[in-house]
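go over this:
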Amino acid sequence: MTAMSDQSSPAAERPSRGVVELDGADLPAYCPNPKMPLWSSHPRVYLDVAHGDPVQCPYCSTVYRLKAGAVVRGGH
């Protein structure tokens, strides 16, 4: 996995919780995602993964990216 480019943000200082791969049907992407346990909740933040670059949640550092070959439809 490639390191995130913005090293000045607080999220860049925390280790990632993991990588979540999304399909086009999973958009719009948001964190915390439905599979996360309730105790790890934080305010919902929408993430723009439609351009193909991985995006890191500013709260928990989970990285979200599109699966290879994922089709993005509509205004996502």
Notes: Residues 24-66 form one domain. The radius of gyration is 12 Å. The chain has one helix and five strands. The CA atoms of residues 2 and 53 lie 10 Å apart.
